[in-house]
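Review box. Two proteins, two foldings.
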Amino acid sequence: MLLQGNRYEDPPQSAATFKQMLQQRYGANCPDFLETSWQDAAVQAHRQYKFLFIYLHSPDHEVCPAPDQL
C-alpha cells in the first residue's frame, strides 16, 4: 500500500492513476507503465529476463512537481 496524503492507496490503483495523468499530459509519448506493484513487476521482469525501470516520485520533494502539475 502507498501513502497518498493521509490515506493509503493500492499499488496497482496508484500506478493506474499515475499512468493516466502522464497519458493525459504527454499522450502516446509516455512509457508504457505496468499497473502493478513494484514487487510484482520485479517478478515479471525476472521471469522474462527483462530489465526493470522503477520510477520513484514524491510530490513532497522540492524538485518533483505535484501530480496536478505533471
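Next protein.
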Amino acid sequence: MRRLLLLIPVVLLFAVVGVGLFRARPQAELGTTAPAFSLPALDAPDDRINLSGLRGKPAVINFWASWCEPCRDEAEALARAARENSRINFLGIAMLDGRESALEFAQEFDVPYPSARDARGVTAKRYGVTGVPETVFLDERGRLVGKFIGAIDRTQLESILDDLIEIGPDELLNITGRGETRPVP
C-alpha cells in the first residue's frame, strides 16, 4: 500500500508533463509564417509530407474529411484547379478521419495532389481550423496570406488563385464570404 502511495505523485508528474509536451502550439495568424508540420502521406503512411516541400510556389492547403458533405461539394473544384494551375502547389489534409475512408474519398474525386493525414487534428488546430472544410493560402515564401472557411466553389477558388499568383511580398488576400462548413467533432 505504501508503494502505491509513493507512485501516485510520480504518475501525476508524468501526466502533467505529458499534457504540456503534447499540447498544440498557438494558432497561426495571417501575415505570419505558416506553422511547420510533418504528417504521414495518406497513400503511403511511412512517407512524410512537410510544409517545406511546398515552398517556392504559392500553395493551397485544404483541410477536409471524408464524412463532411461540404467537403464533397468542393472536392471537384479543388481537383480541377490543381490540374489547371501548375504554378501553385496543392495539398489536402484529411483530419480526424480514418485512413481507408480518406483514401476512398481521394480516389472517388480523382484528387491529383498529395494528401496527408492529421489523425488527431493537431496541425489543423495550429492553423486555426474550427471545422471542415477550410482552405488556407500561402505565398511562395510560406506566409499565411488567406483563409477561406467552408466549401469553396469554382468561381471563388479561381478568383482567389488569380490573386494568389499576383500577390505582393507584404500583401494579404482579400477573401470575402464563406461556404458551408461542419464543426470538428
